[in-house]
Each structure stands twice: as structure tokens, then as C-alpha cells.
Amino acid sequence: MKVLKFGGTSMGSAESIKQVACIIQQQWQADQQGGLAVVASAMSGVTNQLLQMASLAEQGKAFDPLLQELQERHFRVVHALVEASHQNQVLMELKLLLNELEILLHGIRALRELSARTADLVMSFGERLSTTMLTHILRQHIGRSQPSSRVQYVDAREWIKTDSQFGNARVHTEHSYSLICRAVSQHPGTLFCITGFIGSDEQGHTTTLGRGGSDYTAALVGAAVHAEEIQIWTDVDGFMTADPRIVKKAFPLEEISYTEAMELSYFGAKVIYPPTLIPVILQKIPVVIRNTFHPEFPGTVIREHAKRNGTLIRGISSINHISLINIQGSGMVGKSGISGRLFALFARENINIILITQASSEHSITIAVTPAHAEKAKRLIEQEFELELATRKMEPPEVEHDLSILAVVGENMRQTKGLSGKLFSALGRNGINVVAIAQGSSEYNISVVVKQHDLSKALNAVHDAFFIRTKKTLHVFYLGTGNIGKTLLRQIAEHEDYLLENRSLKIKVVAITNTRRMVFDEEGIPLKCWENYLQEHGEPASLHNFIQRMKSMNLPNSVFIDNSASAEVVKHYEEIFTSSISIVTCNKIGNSSEYSLYKKFKDAVKKYGVDFFYETNVGAGLPIISTLHDLLVSGDKILKIEAILSGTISYIFNEFRGDRHFYEIVQEAQAKGYTEPDPRDDLSGLDFMRKMLILARDSGYAVEMQDVEMEPILPESCLQAPSVEAFYEALHREDAHFEALKKKAEAQGKVLRYIGVMDQGKVSIKLHAIDASHPFYFLTGSDNIIAFTTPRYRDCPLVVKGPGAGAEVTAAGVFADLVKVGAQ
């Protein structure tokens, strides 16, 4: 026999009940030999509606509108799914049940009393109404195709016997099993339609089985007849790796063990209620979770031993709202019975302890309870330990609210090295503080308590860390849409498929801002039409509001990209780091300002476990910073750096040879777009100096801008010229000065190069005449070049050469840094 249970959402409407009937009919036709038992819940929301009517009756208020609504809802299903010739009989049976309910509610109103026993009887009408309807619908569906088949309505009160603990009755299993087996054996070839959730005590009074009662009914019937399997039909595809409402990348699990199902369900997975598994565990009966609205999907099989799924954990579950109570004091150390008194106290008062953890020093115990019980639990502890509190052997209990529990679950976790490290690394990198930790000796579960506002971020971060089949997602907050910014957005869009396929990385740009407008979209901004999206959906830009909104979104794996050259943006870097958000930037102002600011950034990166990548601060897309860092990380030491880090200056001196005049080459460089509108912005060497300053600092030297010895290229008359036109006139007048420098170098077989040098922490930028033995002698065009001299590269320096400017290469450098964040 197979047992099929259909929940409230499956029974929620005429459309869904029609789908339920089709599922049952298909399974009945496929296997009549074993037989079929169907357990039905009340229509969704009906149980709450019944309790609401009972409450109104107890208060002496009118319940008739709700009763009428209940009747109409069930009648609509009958009119939609039962043939006209059979409708009167079904409607009459339903009306008799509704009349009985109405009499009961009038009795409650007359007495102004609603006992637990009466409440159970009121609630029973939900399942009795829905199962009556389903029975007639199935008779119509199955009887038409197989006239010999019999569909029998079963009031579970005749099969399941319980004690008299109304609201959450305990089942007398042996007696119930005997009744179920006898009834099934007396009616071979019958499809049983059974009311879920309800039973009766030895006096025949109606009882309910508590939360998950219909699942429990199915488990009891299945265990009694040693069923081949039990199917729980609901509105999800099975057990998911995490809550899909919070973790969009959660996916269904093919198989899980009984233990894993119990752990996941206890910590918030609402698929099945843990105690319902106990009867099937004893009989080792598989339980299959199926989706009524996606019946072709195989669902999740729960069995004694589930096959491995290739991951360290099976799933992640959570409880959204909990409160922690911390009890501590020196009088607890070595004192036996403290925990026993706590457990006994809470058991007497029916307060469930969700989680407990105790320090090995025995100095403190932390327990988690529902927020509704927190203050009551605190008062009870103060009463129970009044003497210890009075003598200061114990401190007053402290309650912390607005917390959540995240639990990673899986049988593969047993004795697996590095699992805890991976969990806490994922949380730490995203700035999620762990308030408490609990792990049982079975190692099936590690539970951590986090702030409630961090739960979504924590679930997504941990899910990305443990499940390889899901792609890691970077949530990018993007500032600056100039030439580099536009180019980078195009590059990200063009390489999206490549990153997903080859790097398992999804870059989701969730916010874009420039000086005019800003826009946010947690689902991701469409990059192929980002300009229109920003214009149509954006709002006036505000740097402060952009930063605050970024922080409040609290997304996992967040990255702030700064494509600007703004000092104002840099002022927010430390605030961004403290929010556990990584930064990728081509803005060199921050790293080249005061050394104290540079050091603040570095300290914040270490403290908050975030990334700070700025490859493009020095050589656009050239691997200069990364090469420097790799040398240092591998144990080498930077003895000397020589560099030409200005494309403009590089071009001018590379072309300054033969009969060419200096002022002509400067004009040519401007015409080709190599210089700023005012060439002095490049020829002043300030940008070059900032780059050398960053290299010196990254080499380990605390260098300030005023420590850099810089020899100006231009005479004072050129620098002081009031306009660009006047500058060129002054440059023409100074032609003899430059010619003299060129001729002197050529006479010695040398060329002129404006070179920055960092030697043992001393930084200088000067014009040098170098011969053919120097690696910079043959430099051409506007390329940058840098030579690292280290103990390993003493005789032959390590040289990096290539384009050091341009939107394409600079954007590519920022892009590479962004991908590095994804690899962390």
C-alpha cells in the first residue's frame, strides 16, 4: 500500500483539488494491487477560520458571516468539480456537517466558554468537510473509469486512538495500528479517504494531533500497514538546500536521511513536522515529498540511508525569530544540577528550549527560546535562582532579542575536517557576527546564532560557500560612468557567460550612480541597457544616500567599485570597509594621500576581512601592484624600483630625438589625445609622484608626498604661464634648454628618460640620461615600464612593460580585480 497525504494548499481551491484528484487517479490506475490510502488536510486557512469563529462565539459575538463564507467556499468546489446529478447528495452531507458546527458554535456562545476539548471538536470540521468533498470527487473520477473500484470515506476518529490531552493528543499506537489493520484487511481493493489531524480518546471525544497532525496521520497509517512508501504532497518541490524565499539559488534535494530531515525540520524547514517521522523511522518506510503543482518533479526521498550528494552538508535551515538568555556567575563553576534545574523549570512551564550552549569553564549557560517566552523565562530563572542571585554567586540573567539561528545539516559532516572553518570564514568575510554556537557530538548539525537583520545575508553567503553547483554571486555597487565606467560595464556584460561557465561567478550590478542620478535593483540592473535603466528608474544622485542604501541592503559578497577620481568618495572608504564591503578602485587619491589614511585602509581591511584591490592605481591594466605583492608574499624584498609611469611623459621623451623639437612633440601628444587639455597637468609629474608613492608604501615604507624628491621637467616660466597658449609660447622660448639636454645625452650615446626611482625607501623622480644597457633605453610609444630589483632579481631586474593608460586596459584592470574578489 502507498499512503498519500495532501496538505492545506493542495486542498485550497477547486483547481488544486482537481489536480489532487488527477494525481490520485494516476497512482490508483498504476497500482491497485497494493492499495491506496489518501489523507486530506482542511482547505488552506479553514482551521484558523474555525478557531476564529469559536473565539467570536465565546465572546458572544456574531460568527454567522464567517460560517456563511466557509459554506460558500466548500460549495463552490462541489459546483465546480462534482457532476450536477450528484451535487445534491454532496451538498446535503456538507450541509449536515455545517449545521452540526453551527449548533456547536451556538452552544459555545450560550455558555461563553471554549474548552480545549470543544476547540478540538470545532477544528475537526475542517478535515471532515474537505475529506467528504474529496471522497465524492474521487468516486466520480475513479468510479467512472473503474466501476468495480470502491472509494471509502474514513473518519480518522474511528482508527486513531489517543489520550485526552486536547490540542496535542498522544497516540495509543498499538491500539490504533490494530484498528487500522483490521479495517484495511476487511476492505481489500479499496481506496481509503482519511481525515487528517484528528483522532479520539477512549471515551470517544474528538482530539487533535497538534502541529503537523495530518502528516502524523499519514505516518501512523503507513506504519500500521507497513506501507511501501508515504507521499507528502505540498506546494514545494521537496526539501530545499535553503529557504527559497531568502536564498534564490536554493535547489531541491534528491535524497536525505531521516536524521537530516529531522534536523532540517526542527530548524525551520516547514516541509514536514519532525515527530511525524517517528512511526516511519521505526518501520524504515521511505517518505517522499512531492509538489502537487509540479507533479512531474520526483521530489525528495527521505530514507534511512541517503546517498551522498557530493557536498559537505545536506542543507541549511534557519529559525527567524529567537531570543537568547545568558546566565553566568562564578557560583556556577563546578556546581552540579544547574542545568537540571533549568530544564525542569522550563518543562514545568511548557517553555521549549530551542538551543543550549555552555562554556567549558562552566561559568555561563546560554539558552535560546521563542521571543514570546523570553521575559517569562527570565522571571522564572530569577525566582528559581533567587538565593544565588542574592548572594552574587550568579549574575542577573540577560535577555537579547532580535536574533536568528542558522543551522548547517548533513550526515557527511561527521569527522569532516575544515567544515567549521569554511562556515565561519563565509560568515566572517561578510561581517556577520556569531553570537552563540552549538554543535552536538553527533556532528550532524552546527548551529550559529546571528543578528536577525543579518540572517538573509548569512544564509546566502553560507549557501554560496558550500554548494558548488550554485554560482558565487558578487553584489556590485557601481560609482562612476565616465569612459572607464562605461567600458567596464560593457566588459562585464560581454563576459557574463564566460564567468558563469568557467569561474562559477555571477557579477550582479545592483546599484549604479554618477554625479546626476542613481538607481538600485537587488535583482540586478540589465547591463545591456543600463543607461536607459538609470535614466528611467533612477533618482537624483546623493553620495551619502548611496552609501547608506548600500549598507542597509546588507547583501552578501558586496563590492563597491569606484571609477572616479574624487577625493570626496575616498572619505567614505573606511565606513564601507567597516560594513564588510570590499572595494575595487582606480581612484588613486586615497592610497596617495597622507600615509595615516593609507594605513587606516590597510588596518580596516585586515580587521573586517574584506578585499581592497587597486591594481589600476599605478599602471592601468598592467600587473604592477599584483607583481609587487606576489614578490613580497613569496618572501622576496624590494631593493629598488625604477619606473616610467606616465604614458604622456613616456611618449614625449621617446620621440625627443634627432631634429625634433620638444615643444613640437608636446603639441603632437596633445593632438593625439595623450595629454590633458592643459599638458602641464601631465608634465607637472604630480600623477607620476602619486604612483611612486603607492609603490613605495606597498613595498613597506611609510613615505609621505613631501618626502619625494621630484625634479620638474618644465622651467618655471612654462609652469607659471597664465594660459595654455601662453604655455606653448613659453615652451618655444625655452627650446634651447631642451635642445642642450638632448644633445648632451646624444653625445654620450644616451637617451633622455623621466624616471621614478624608489631605492631603500627613498623616492625620487628625475630626468636621466641612460645608455643601451638600461632596460628603459628601447622604450617606444606611450608605454609604461617598471623594473623591480630584488635579491632574486638582482642582476637582471624583473620588468613589466605595456600600455599604462586608456579606457579599455584600465577597465580590464578593474575587471580583473573584481574577479579576484570573487575568487576569495
**SS-based structural class?**
alpha/beta
Count of individual helical segments: 32
- Poorly predicted runs of 5 or more residues: none
Distance between the termini: 52 Å
Overall mean confidence score, pLDDT: 92
Q: What share of residues is helical? A: 40-55%
Which outline best applies? elongated
Spatial order of the strands in the main sheet? 3-4-2-1-7-9-10-8
Number of strands: 29
The share of residues in extended strands comes to 15-25%
What is the radius of gyration? Answer: 37 Å
> What can be said about the biggest beta sheet?
8 strands, mixed
Notes on the structure:
By secondary structure, this protein is α/β, with parallel strands linked by helices. Helices cover 44% and strands 20% of the residues. The protein contains 32 helices and 29 strands. The strands form 5 sheets. Strands 3-4-2-1-7-9-10-8 form an 8-stranded mixed sheet, sandwiched between helices. A 7-stranded mixed sheet has the order 20-19-18-17-21-22-23, sandwiched between helices. It is elongated and about 120 Å long.
Which helices and strands, and how do they pair?
Elements lengths: L1 E5 L7 H17 L5 E5 L5 H13 L5 H18 L2 H28 L4 H30 L4 E5 L18 H14 L3 E6 L2 E3 L5 E3 L4 H12 L4 E6 L20 E3 H9 L11 H6 L3 E5 L8 E4 L11 E14 L9 H11 L6 E4 L5 E6 L1 H14 L1 H5 L7 E12 L9 H11 L4 E6 L5 E7 L3 H12 L5 E8 L3 H12 L1 H8 L1 E9 L3 E4 L9 H8 L1 E2 L2 H11 L4 E5 L4 H4 L2 H6 L3 E4 L3 H4 L2 H14 L3 E2 L2 H4 L5 H9 L6 E5 L2 H9 L6 H10 L8 H4 L2 H13 L10 E2 L5 H4 L4 H10 L1 H13 L3 E9 L2 E9 L12 E7 L8 E6 L3 H17 L1
Parallel strand pairs: 1-2, 1-7, 2-4, 3-4, 7-9, 8-10, 17-18, 17-21, 21-22, 22-23, 25-27
Antiparallel strand pairs: 5-6, 9-10, 11-13, 11-14, 12-13, 14-16, 15-16, 18-19, 19-20, 24-26, 24-28, 26-27, 28-29
